[in-house]
Design goal:
By secondary structure, the protein is an all-alpha fold. Helix 1 crosses helix 2 and helix 2 crosses helix 3. The radius of gyration is 20 Å and the shape is elongated.
Length: about 230
């Protein structure tokens, strides 16, 4: 029988665990369930990952690599409204891919002190990035808000991003979060900044928000649910 390389097997275990954690919640998934999904014995899985906590640790590291890429700022050029939109879109995309972390955040933090510190750092970096983008818009006159208020606005955006999936689960516990969930979250964050934007940027944000609202609209709203295209 052909043996798969150790690194490949570990990757298969992580991929299977991520899918199962996202679907059922990390506390509800056992090592045996992961082994069965990968198609290996429990002993083989234990050889690669002695505990579920080790799998969670590796998945958190994968998440950190992805989420840290969203903290990039424009650099020397002036900040555009689309920079804020892109930051929010990539943030929600990453959260959706690793949604088990946010679905079970409080429970995970109670068991993993390292994750507690890492998530706190992520929230701090997200707030710093959002604040820098908002301050850039203020500097060029595109965002009409007192500079002292950009921190509070950034914190509100990050708050929505952090707890949006929990909000979605409460509203519909049996629905699997998808692109619609992401769309509604991005639209909600955009709506926080929209009232302070200059007319030109406001029109652009209204267009983006309208697109996201139609993408993520209530499935009982009939024709208003159809996915819009830009």
């Amino acid at each position: 029988m052909e043996h798969k390389p150790k690194r490949q097997t570990r990757a298969r275990i992580r991929n299977a665990a991520l899918l199962l954690f996202n679907r059922f919640g990390e506390p509800n998934v056992t090592l045996s369930a992961i082994a069965a999904d990968v198609g290996i014995s429990h002993g083989n899985l234990h050889y690669h990952y002695p505990s579920k906590e080790r799998i969670v640790d590796d998945l958190v590291q994968d998440y950190l690599v992805e989420i840290e890429a969203t903290f990039a700022l424009p650099g020397a050029r002036a900040v555009e409204a689309d920079d804020l939109w892109l930051f929010l879109h990539l943030t929600f995309e990453t959260i959706l891919r690793h949604r088990f972390l946010y679905r079970d955040l409080i429970e995970l933090l109670s068991r993993h002190r390292v994750i507690e510190k890492q998530i706190r750092r992520v929230i701090e970096e997200q707030t710093r990035t959002a604040e820098a983008l908002l301050a850039g818009l203020v500097a060029r006159g595109a965002l009409l808000v007192d500079p002292s208020e950009t921190r509070a606005l950034a914190e509100r955006m990050v708050f929505v991003a952090t707890w949006w999936l929990c909000h979605a689960y409460v509203l519909n516990p049996r629905a699997e979060p998808d692109g619609d969930t992401l769309a509604r979250g991005v639209a909600r964050c955009l709506s926080l900044a929209a009232p302070y934007l200059r007319e030109q940027e406001r029109a652009h944000f209204d267009k983006l928000s309208g697109h996201y609202t139609k993408m993520g609209g209530n499935k009982n709203d009939g024709e208003e649910n159809k996915v819009a295209t830009l």
